[in-house]
Amino acid sequence: MYTESFFIQFANIVEEAYPQFDSNHFMKLIYCDDWDTKELKQRMRHITICLREILPPSYEEALAILYSIAQQCRGIEYLFFPDFVEVYGLEQWDISIAALAHFTKFSTSEGAVRPFIIASPKLMMKQMLQWAQHDDHHVRRLASEGCRPRLPWNIALKDLKIDPSPILPILEHLKRDSSEYVRRSVANNLNDISKDHPQIVKKIAKEWYGHDSHTNWIIKHGCRTLLKQGDPDALLLFGFDTTEGITVDQLSLSCEKLTVGDDLTFSFSITNTSKRPKKLRVDYEIHFVKANNKTSAKKFKITENTFVDTKTYTRTHSFKDLSTRKHYEGLHMLKILINSEEKKQESFYLYKSV
């Protein structure tokens, strides 16, 4: 993403707004000795630091330059714009808050806003409630996404994990938002809260559900962890039945031994022996062997369906190494779950690639 051509075109944009910008010096600063070893967020922070050295020494003047060119700099690669505010703007509240709202329209300020919440939680949450009423849907999304207690790839908001009540007025205001981008953020925030305070989210779900199709989607997506865990209240709210009279049969694996990089295909049938149709959630769970030879389970959704008699399913799971998952040799387990209740299991052995 951060190629030489990217930096050249970015430097050209800055020069138009700030002719004193020293492009050659900027490039030398960027390509420091350990540039090649830096990961994505480290590179973003490095760019921020390099800009601070090249732009005017006054934070206000430097920010004004970035503010003026932000519209030409769109996409995740420009996250160093809000990062500049995060690193250097905590003591310049008013202009920094305005800049975060501006920059989020072109990349996102969801991560950069979090140190401001930690520094001044009451003041910042009041500001985010104001953002929830903004005309621009990017800013409204920032109101929700920025205060997610467990936002991935960012620092956790420990106080909001303990007490999420300051978040709730923001989510209440956005629960019928016209933008799917915003609604998805509201759902993700609720899902974060559910991991620490399931009762709060279940109470909200009961209050919100059944009044608006957009809000119904938010609730369903916001309760996905509770549904995956088989929480009885969440299952009942969304019309799932008990597993009484449900059997899983004929679970078969394409092989009992495979190598890292291979695919595993499996099939099974679900039979409803009760006298009425049943709506059920079906998942499969793999217990992966870790580097320490212990196992760690991960669930994968198959379907939410109404069962009258018998249905057969076939699925394929890849055991290729990913950036987010490395596979280790050992005895693995595959389980079929109905409403998170284990119904069938089979083991298989995964070998290292030769």
- Hey, roughly how much beta strand do the residues contain? 15-25%
Strand and helix order: HHHHHHHHHHHHHHHHEEEEEEEE
Order of strands across the biggest sheet? 2-8-7-4-5
Number of extended strands: 8
In helices, the fraction of residues equals 40-55%
Shape, per Cα inertia axes: globular
What would you call the structural class? alpha+beta
Assembly level: single chain
Total DSSP helices: 16
User: What value does the average pLDDT take?
Assistant: 96
Radius of gyration: 25 Å
Which stretches are poorly predicted, pLDDT < 50 over at least 5 residues? none
Cα distance, first to last residue?
Answer: 32 Å
What features would you describe in this structure?
The chain is an alpha+beta fold and 354 residues long. It is 43% helix and 21% strand. It contains 16 helices and 8 strands. α3 packs across α5 and α12 runs parallel beside α14. The longest helix is centred in the first third of the chain and has 15 residues, at 40-54. It is globular and about 75 Å long. The relative contact order is 0.07.
What characteristics describe this protein?
about 350 residues, alpha+beta, 8 strands, about 45% helix
What's this model, at a glance?
The protein has 354 residues and is of the alpha+beta class. It is built from 16 helices and 8 strands.
